[in-house]
Amino acid sequence: MPSTTPTHARTPTAPAPPAVLSLEEHLAFATAAMTVRLDEAAVAYEANTAHIPVKPVGLGDVVTVPLTPTLQPPIPYPTPLAALLQRAHHRLLTGGWCSGALADEDGARCMLGAIRAEARGDRGLEANAAAVVLDAIRRQFGDHIDSVPSFNDTHTSGRIPMRMLDQAAGLADARSL
User: What is the pLDDT of residues 41-68, one digit of tens each?
Assistant: First the structure.
């Protein structure tokens, strides 16, 4: 016998309206979504550029400071050779750098010209300073460098030659020269 009780059809209920997000919650979700997208982009960049050879860049070539003639000389090294190289470095910083000549018409000097000027006629001190500079250059750039002037003249700016003079001064100081 069939049932006499009426069956009620269930009507589907509408989903609850989305909760209204606060500004902080909205920003948190946006930040999370952007972080995921940036991480995916970083992985894609690494995958797409992995085959490209990259030469490392020395920070000394990137980080620069304005050079002005009013720079005060640093506290001199206690040893004569290190102090000479430090003065030569300072001379290039303040007086300018050149290539192809010991000094140009504006008074700028090459590495050896700065060493010679600061050696003040002491050829032995000048030769020893040039030897330490050449050693510092070869440590960084290899044994194929023939001389300080040839190294100086291969550059188009004084940034690297000046950095090498500074490193040579530190090397001479470490050797107590």
Answer: 999 988 888 888 877 777 666 655 555 5
Q: Is the separation of the CB atoms in 155 and 117 below 8 Å?
A: no
The distance of Cα 66 from the centroid of its chain, to the nearest Å, equals 15
State both tokens at 84. 């000479």
Q: What distances in angstroms separate CA 55 from CA 124, 139, 141, 164, one per listed residue?
A: 38, 18, 13, 19
CA–CA separation, 173 and 177 (whole Å): 6
Contact 109, 115 (CB under 8 A): no
Q: Give the three-state DSSP class for 140.
A: helix
For residue 130 the two structure tokens come to: 């040039």
Q: DSSP character for 157?
A: S
Could you give the CA distance from residue 67 to residue 138 in angstroms, rounded to a whole number? Answer: 27
Q: Is 31 left (phi over 0), alpha (psi -120 to 50) or beta?
A: alpha
Q: Which of 92, 94, 133 lies closest to 114, judged by CA?
A: 92
